[in-house]
Amino acid sequence: MAVERKSLRVTQTGSPIGRPDYQRDTLISLGLNKLRRTKVIVDTPENRGRITRVQHLVKVEEA
């Protein structure tokens, strides 16, 4: 029996220039490093925590 995983579409809307290093590292861990780049990621507690750390730099939608 397969479990269907929800996905999130995360788009980078802000620049990490002038931000703390951990925010740049968090964007890279989400697969983002340029403005308007979009990634579809699995909705897990770990990824939700990453998104929360950089919520002012990304836009999140259900995929």
Number of helices: 2
Report low-confidence residues grouped into runs of 5 or more: none
Sheet/helix structural class: alpha+beta
Domains (count):
1
Radius of gyration in whole Å, from Cα? 12 Å
**How many beta-strand segments?**
3
The H-and-E topology, N to C, reads as: EHEHE
Strand content: 25-35%
Give the biggest beta sheet.
3 strands, antiparallel
Family: Belongs to the universal ribosomal protein uL30 family.
GO molecular function, one term: structural constituent of ribosome
Keywords: Ribonucleoprotein, Ribosomal protein
Region (Disordered): 1-22
Commentary on this structure:
By secondary structure, the chain is an alpha+beta fold. It has one domain: Ribosomal protein L30/L7 (Ribosomal Protein L30, Chain: A, 2-Layer Sandwich). Helices cover 29% and strands 25% of the residues. The protein is built from 2 helices and 3 strands, in the order E-H-E-H-E. A 3-stranded antiparallel beta sheet has the order 2-1-3, with no helix packed on it. The longest helix is centred in the middle third of the chain and has 9 residues, at 21-29. It is elongated. It starts with 6 loop residues before the first strand and ends with a strand.
